[in-house]
Amino acid sequence: GESVGLHLPTLSVQEGDNSIINCAYSNSASDYFIWYKQESGKGPQFIIDIRSNMDKRQGQRVTVLLNKTVKHLSLQIAATQPGDSAVYFCAENQLGGNNRKLIWGLGTSLAVNP
Amino acid sequence: DGGITQSPKYLFRKEGQNVTLSCEQNLNHDAMYWYRQDPGQGLRLIYYSQIVNDFQKGDIAEGYSVSREKKESFPLTVTSAQKNPTAFYLCASSIQGQGGYEQYFGPGTRLTVT
Question: Residue B10's CB: how many other CB atoms inside 10 A?
């Protein structure tokens, strides 16, 4: 399943499928990007980050892709599990800039169907 | 275990009363942040502090106040001047206040004002 994360959409996928969550970032000067996962009633949890000198970075079951040409970021989750159900936020920043200026997307809600 | 703690998890207050939310971190991080999150929304920055005895307003500081007397503590006071204080409040910290460093979040405090 795939979504565009600008207005807190909901992405619904079957357990075991791959998920793709998209994010269109706003600032062309941003060079550091983070994905966070937020479960209901909890604080956001860091998933993975990527700097602008890379276009792909892999973690455990997650991959982040960065396309600077179109200012697009995506998070791919392999073999989605029920525990992956959460809201996913992308955030952008500038290396060496002020971390106060971490710009947050609105989030995408991922629902995993067993 | 290192981390960020927020207390209490749930807080109820009557309109017109000031209330202080606690945030403590033992990560030895220089920078700390307060965010507000409304249902189905992203995070909005209230205040941040890059170093002890210094703090600056975020995007929605009106009706809030903070202090940073100790490195590990960054309490937030929601004053009676805040027009719509009911929300989920999240505290975060990062190694430095510069961009390029992830922010670590506490579990949040859900404040209800009636």
Answer: 10
CB proximity A78 to B under 8 Å:
no
Q: What single-letter amino acid sits at A17?
A: D
- Residue B53: which of B33, B73, B66, B67 has the closest Cα? B67
Cβ distance A23 to A7 under 8 Å?
Answer: no
Q: What number of other Cβ atoms are within 10 A of residue A87's Cβ?
A: 22
d(CA B109, CA A43): 9
User: CA of B45 to nearest chain A CA: how many angstroms apart?
Assistant: 8
CA dist A106 → B54, B65, B76, B111 (Å): 29, 25, 24, 21
Q: Spell out where chain B has E strands.
A: 4-7, 10-13, 19-25, 31-37, 43-51, 54-57, 64-66, 76-78, 87-94, 104-105, 109-113
**Residue pLDDT, tens place only, B59-96:** 999 999 999 999 999 999 999 999 999 999 999 999 88
Distance of alpha carbon B87 from alpha carbon B38, whole angstroms? 5
Quick one: A14 exposed, middle or buried, by C-beta within 10 A (0-12, 13-18, 19+)? exposed
- A38-49 pLDDT tens trace: 999 999 999 999
Backbone torsions φ then ψ of B6, nearest 5 degrees: -125, 140
Q: Please check whether residue A98 touches B, CB under 8 A.
A: yes
Instruction: Tell me the shortest Cα–Cα distance from B51 to chain A, in angstroms.
Output: 13
Is the model's pLDDT at A3 over the cut of 50? Answer: no
Length of chain A as a residue count: 114
